[in-house]
Design a protein that fits this description.
The protein is α+β, with helices and mostly antiparallel strands. Among the domains are: 139 residues, no CATH class; 69 residues, Homeodomain-like (Arc Repressor Mutant, subunit A). The protein contains 21 helices and eight strands. A hairpin with a 2-residue loop joins strand 5 and strand 6.
């Protein structure tokens, strides 16, 4: 067969979306939290002399916050506590309590290897090799560290951490230190009858030791972490008046951008084409940024309004029940893509008179069964019911997962044992064997 190739010219019209850099940035801005948005705006202002950023003044703009009971909240209690770091806290104690000797030098050497949780992250053998100290000297240095505050600091593992805290606590049960030292693995595995038999004590005393250990901290240094920035700026505010629910965008909590008109007019007097081109480009950048910030706020507000429409009972009833709701439902109503709704709810918060909630927390999958009014049951409702059943169980004979399945089935909630176990674990509730008590 003879090969033949023909060429021709024809016009073809197609329509497609070009994902430009500005569009990509707009999508990213929607995903930003309030803190990330403020950082982004500040960054844009550094590159654009025509942008002035007006940071929100919370002290002047907001009314005095009220608690759920209607009492005024003390502003001083809102101020972050910029406390010392764990390392600085230890250094202060070392210089105050220990003389300037070779042993203190070793103590300062070991402190460098204590992590933020308060644990020593180097073995004594390696410490001796690096410092050239004798093993007994390094052990003495570690002992001095373990006498410092907070109790448990300088421990090499969890068992030693708990023992150090127990040793310095007058409230500790008499046999607590002995149980931790000789039967730690059995205690963790809840082999309490075996421990009681070995120590010739009632099982109830082992139960008391276990209850006491739960009051100790497994990370003694964690409390010294910086608390700066541990606050949430809500994106939307909800006001409830009887049966009426109103949601508004928290514009006052957002950074505001202002155009430097006087500077623009001053520079526009230049006859240099490059300067005029630069100014026009920066003006367009300002307009894009302002528009993007407003679009972000409007999108989040629309999503929040749709959520409230579906979850009215949560805002009006004290039990705070949640109905099944998925991203696709909101996306279809607003005629946007699911990914847009996902970006609009992740890291975005809603403030109400009874708390602050992340928008994504209002989404819950549907599970089997219906309530008395014929409505679908959400996973959050199931979890709440599981908590109630376990809270009211006989602690000497806790409910197994299969028994929980049977109780839920009697309430027309059909779940498998695996699903119940998954929800129980998600709630941080241990199995029935680990919930059993002997007192």
């Amino acid at each position: 067969m003879k090969f033949q190739q023909n060429f021709s010219q024809a016009q073809k019209q197609t329509q497609k979306l070009a994902l430009t850099q500005k569009l990509q940035q707009s999508i990213q801005v929607l995903q930003y939290s309030v803190e990330e948005l403020s950082a982004f705006v500040d960054s844009e202002a550094l590159d654009n002399p025509l942008i002035e950023v007006i940071e929100p003044n919370y002290t002047l703009q907001y009314n005095k916050p009220m608690s759920g009971s209607g009492t005024e909240v003390n502003y001083l209690s809102q101020i972050p506590d910029n406390r010392l770091s764990l390392f600085e806290h230890l250094l202060d104690q070392i210089h105050l309590n220990y003389r300037d000797t070779y042993l203190r030098t070793l103590v300062l050497f070991l402190v460098e290897y204590i992590d933020l949780n308060g644990f020593l992250k180097i073995t004594l053998e390696d410490a001796c090799e690096e410092s050239g100290a004798a093993p007994i000297q390094m052990l003495d240095a570690l002992t001095l560290i373990q006498q410092l505050d907070p109790p448990g600091v300088g421990a090499r593992n969890l068992q030693e951490c708990l023992m150090l805290q127990t040793e310095r606590d007058d409230r500790a049960p008499v046999i607590a230190y002995l149980v931790l030292e000789e039967h730690f693995e059995e205690l963790v595995a809840r082999k309490w009858p075996e421990i009681a038999k070995a120590l010739a004590v009632p099982v109830t005393e082992i139960q008391q030791v276990f209850d006491y250990i739960q009051t100790l901290t497994p990370t003694p240094g964690a409390s010294f972490g910086s608390t700066e920035g541990l606050y949430i700026i809500p994106d939307v505010l909800v006001k409830i008046d009887g049966e009426e629910i109103q949601v508004v965008s928290n514009r006052r909590g957002m950074p505001e951008v202002k155009f430097q008109q006087s500077y623009f007019e001053q520079m526009a007097q230049s006859q240099d084409p490059e300067v005029l081109k630069y100014l026009e480009g920066k003006k367009q950048d300002f307009q894009w940024l302002q528009k993007t910030i407003h679009q972000r706020g409007d999108t989040i507000l629309r999503v929040a309004q749709a959520i409230i429409t579906h979850q009215r009972d949560f805002f009006l009833h004290e039990q705070r029940p949640l109905k099944p709701l998925i991203l696709k439902t909101i996306a279809d109503e607003l005629e946007v893509h699911e990914s847009t709704v996902s970006r609009a709810v992740n890291g975005k918060y809603m403030e109400t008179s009874f708390g602050v909630f992340e928008l994504k927390s209002f989404f819950s999958q549907k599970v089997g069964g219906q309530n008395g009014e014929g409505e679908d049951i959400s996973a959050d409702t199931i979890k709440q019911r599981l908590q109630e059943l376990i809270a009211s169980e006989n602690k000497n004979k806790p409910l197994s997962d299969q028994k929980l399945v049977d109780l839920l089935k009697a309430e027309s909630l059909a779940l498998s044992r695996r699903t119940v176990a998954k929800y129980r674990e998600a709630l941080g509730i241990p199995s029935s064997a680990k919930r059993k008590r002997f007192d």
